[in-house]
Specification:
alpha/beta; 267 residues; Alpha-Beta Plaits; single chain; 14 strands; 4-stranded antiparallel beta sheet; 8-stranded mixed beta sheet; binds magnesium ion; Rossmann fold
Length: 267
């Protein structure tokens, strides 16, 4: 990714075998009084680590999110692929409105939990992932009950085999294959991150405000589209791909700095 003199970020569009630069400008300073903020966690608010469990609570991130929650009168939701309990671990239970497992589990701003039903096919997929991962201690299986992930960040040479296995299992079991950054996941049909945004936006305290979705994952594209459709916009962090986001930021540090500027402008 090449920052340009104008402060835009170049995103690569490699569809159809061609390489096309897409320049996305940095987003305008957040107008906190008018918006509802939806943010992914890993690769967006927190740097990607070797394993999901290596991401720990962080004092600087806690101060930033606490200040945003206050300034937004609670109109902040974290929308992540992590399981709900794991999100609460990393965020120290300080964010009530969260969507976990890519939208399959949602906790409303008043604390109600709405979760997709457990699916026995996920258990079968998890067993197959675990059998496969036995041969390589660098592979990590993360069972989230309504989805199961096979992480290969520490075993990059196994990436293709992991993705092939997931595709085969997905076809056999009728599950959706979801690719991420050094991870492949199987999940059942159900709400995605975009559906989570729509659901939050129909409820207090989010309803009536303009949704901004900040994220880096392929699954965040659903969130970008939902935010646009509801009058807001998406901001993609770091990724090089065609995107439905209107603006781009280079990395987690740039995302944190942008949020901080929004807070300072509102003070
Ligand atoms: Mg992410």
């Amino acid at each position: 990714m090449a920052p340009t003199p104008e402060g835009t970020i170049s995103f690569m569009n490699v569809s159809q075998g061609s390489t096309l630069e897409i320049d996305l400008a940095a987003p305008p300073t957040l107008a906190l009084s008018a918006i509802a903020l939806f943010a992914d966690l890993d690769g967006t608010l927190a740097p990607i680590e070797e394993t999901p469990s290596a991401v720990k609570p962080d004092a600087r991130r806690r101060r930033l999110l606490d200040a945003l929650t206050h300034a937004l009168s609670g109109r902040l939701a974290v929308i992540s692929g992590r399981a709900l309990g794991d999100l609460d671990r990393v965020l120290e239970g300080r964010i009530t409105a969260v969507a976990a497992v890519h939208g399959l589990v949602r906790r409303t701003a008043d604390g109600r939990i709405i979760a997709a039903a457990a699916d026995e096919r996920i258990g079968e997929a998890a067993a197959a992932f675990r059998a496969f991962a036995k041969a390589d201690s660098c592979l990590l299986v993360e069972d989230k009950c309504v989805a199961v992930a096979l992480h290969y960040r520490k075993a990059p040479l196994a990436a293709e085999a992991c993705r092939d296995l997931a595709k085969r299992l997905g076809a056999t079991l009728g599950l959706i294959v979801q690719e991420g950054e050094s991870v492949v996941e199987l999940r059942a049909l159900g709400p995605d991150k975009g559906a989570a945004v729509e659901a939050f936006m129909a409820e207090p305290p989010f309803a009536g405000f303009s949704p901004i979705f900040l994220g880096d994952d392929l699954t965040d594209e659903h969130g970008f589209r939902a935010a646009s459709a509801l009058g807001g916009f998406g901001v993609v962090v770091g990724a090089r791909r065609p995107t439905a986001a209107r603006y781009g930021l280079a990395d987690v540090a740039a995302a944190q700095a942008w949020l901080q500027r929004g807070l300072e402008a509102a003070a």
